[in-house]
Specification:
Chain A has eleven helices and 14 strands. Chain A is of the alpha/beta class and 305 residues long. In chain A, helix 5 runs parallel beside helix 6, helix 8 crosses helix 11 and helix 9 packs antiparallel against helix 10. The two termini of chain A are 34 Å apart. The chains are: A alpha/beta (305), B mainly alpha (247).
């Protein structure tokens, strides 16, 4: 649904986005992670045809973001939730959605149905005549998502949708994004929130001007330090360490009564390791898998650690 | 370039809905023309009674100068509205989602121009009708004829006042790109009425005569300025410019 090839944007001498290549499938939730100034918003703005690219190419569906004739078609098939909600504060929730429905030329009957549907879904129907300026941050964010969906777009771009929201409001927004995924909407999610990305994204791209990593959350976690098995023993001995080293392919480290063992294929190797420990009289308390967290991966890639 | 007027009207309708919620805009838009319409006949009557001289045809050149206040009003009212419509939306951050819609930049700009143009000009025209009726009631006994309507006032209302309004709106678009808040825009565009005030003062001291020919020449000059500012404002009001270069 989204195909990006070598997308680059310069602002005078500043390289904001450098040669980004990625693709997002239909119905996928794609997380775009990166620090402030990494180029996430610039990328989204290019994909939404709000600003031009310096070089490279990108297509949304069958349309080219660089083609002036395709740009209105792209804007019609996407919805954008910007980082600042940008509602008409003086107007009611209903009117906010109604005007956007008109901008997208949604016919009046369908517009009324969709406004009612979204306001009820998001728990805002009772407050439909209240000015948006009187809403809490969470309510405003929900309203801005509804606004982006009023014309039933195929692709939804969300720029930091849960920033500054309390945990409950964040969860509501996240659950709503998952509902949209079930409706086969393609979702491109800019976020700082690693936990959120891990919970709802099928794949994640980490951007630091360049795209420094791309994969599923699990793939990214494994990409830094591989997979490890941690075995908590009642007591550790040199015989146990030697026995483990004979069967384990990777490095073996000790930490108190813990063995931290590098494994390529834990499902196959772990039973052999446990047998080896038992054979030399070791008593096992716990066996757990250890991999890098998404945060470890993110920090390592972004900070170059 | 093909413009979808329905799109422009949707943008204008939304702005009208917001203006209706802003009492300051509503009051100013109604009060200024009404003040002119009631104020000048009041001045004529008061001065006549105070000086003890009857109203006669020697007053006629002053009436033309008074009429020019409807042009001054048409030049000063739209910038207040346009500053909310453009700089206000920029500050409220509601421009970005609007720019993400399929509408063309020119349709959005046209919508905002309509929203800033129609209420002040309609209000000025309505005020001018009240002014003409009252001034005719006041002056007819002395003049022996109805002074209004006349060609000069027609040119002022139907040509010069709209051109002055458009000039104010275009200037507001250009200033909005460089300003961080609505007040700054209003301060910059507030000076819009000065050139018109100078013209008014020059007519009062007899340097300029506001006859139909001179008003048509003035309209031509303002049309040329409008066309130049139209080019600048359309170049300023582009998605790319708004999101990357506007302050």
């Amino acid at each position: 649904m989204i195909d990006v090839e070598g997308l680059t944007r310069k602002f005078d001498d500043l390289l904001a986005v450098d040669q980004v290549t990625l693709s997002v499938d239909e119905g996928e939730v794609f997380g775009f992670l990166g620090p402030n100034g990494a180029g996430k918003t610039t990328t989204v703005r290019m994909l939404c045809c709000l600003i031009s690219k310096t070089s490279g190419a990108a297509r949304i569906g069958e349309y080219d973001i660089g083609s002036a004739s395709d740009q209105p078609r792209i804007r019609r098939m996407i919805g954008l939730v910007p980082d600042n909600v940008g509602l008409y504060e003086e107007l009611s929730a209903y009117k906010n959605l109604d005007y956007y429905g008109r901008y997208y030329k949604v016919d009046e009957t369908k517009r009324r149905e969709r406004i009612e549907y979204f306001l009820k879904l998001l728990g805002l129907w009772e407050k439909r005549d209240v000015a948006a300026g009187a809403f809490s941050k969470g309510m405003k964010q929900k309203l801005s998502i509804a606004r982006a969906l009023i014309h039933d777009p195929q692709v939804l771009f969300l720029d930091e949708p849960t920033a500054n929201l309390d945990p409950e409001a964040s969860k509501t927004v996240r659950d709503f994004i998952l509902d949209l995924k079930r409706e086969k909407k393609t979702i491109f999610l800019n976020t700082h929130n690693l936990d959120e990305a891990q919970k709802i994204c099928d794949r994640i791209g980490i951007l630091n001007t360049k795209l420094v990593a791309l994969g599923t959350p699990t793939e990214l976690e494994r990409s830094i330090s591989g997979r490890k098995t941690v075995i908590q023993l009642e007591a550790i001995s040199q015989a146990i360490v030697s026995a483990v080293k004979r069967v384990a392919a990777g490095a073996v480290e000790t930490e108190g009564n813990k063995l931290i063992i590098g494994v390529n294929d834990p499902e196959k190797q772990n039973p052999d390791i446990i047998d080896a420990i038992s054979t030399v009289g070791g008593r096992i308390q716990f066996v757990t898998a250890l991999s890098s967290t998404l945060e470890d991966v993110y920090l390592k890639l972004v900070r170059g650690q | 370039m093909e413009l979808d007027l329905q799109n422009a009207w949707s943008v204008a309708s939304k702005d009208f809905a917001i203006f209706r919620k802003r009492k300051g805009i509503v009051i100013t838009t109604i009060a200024l023309p009404l003040g002119i319409a009631l104020g000048f006949p009041g001045i004529v009557v008061t001065l006549s009674q105070y000086a003890g001289t009857p109203i006669d045809a020697s007053l006629a050149p002053f009436l033309n100068a008074f009429s020019f206040w409807f042009v001054i009003g048409a030049a000063s009212l739209p910038s207040g509205i346009a500053s909310y419509s453009i700089a206000g939306e920029k500050i409220q951050k509601s421009l970005e989602p609007l720019l993400a819609t399929p509408m063309k930049d020119s349709e959005i700009l046209l919508g905002k121009t309509i929203a800033s143009f129609l209420p002040p000009i309609a209000s000025m025209w309505a005020g001018s009708v009240v002014y003409m009726i009252i001034m005719d009631l006041v002056t007819r006994p002395g003049f022996g004829y109805l002074y209004y309507p006349n060609w000069s006032f027609g040119v002022m209302l139907l040509l010069l006042a709209p051109l002055a309004s458009i000039l104010a709106i275009e200037l507001t678009v250009i200033v909005s790109a460089r300003a961080n808040d609505v007040r700054t825009v209003q301060q910059f565009t507030g000076v819009m009425f000065f050139p018109f005030l100078v013209i008014y003062l020059m007519t009062e001291i007899g340097v300029i005569v506001l006859n139909t020919a001179n008003l048509l020449i003035m309209s031509g000059i303002f049309l040329a300025i409008d066309l130049f500012l139209f080019y600048l404002s359309t170049a300023t009001f582009k998605r790319e410019e708004i999101l990357t270069k506007w302050k």
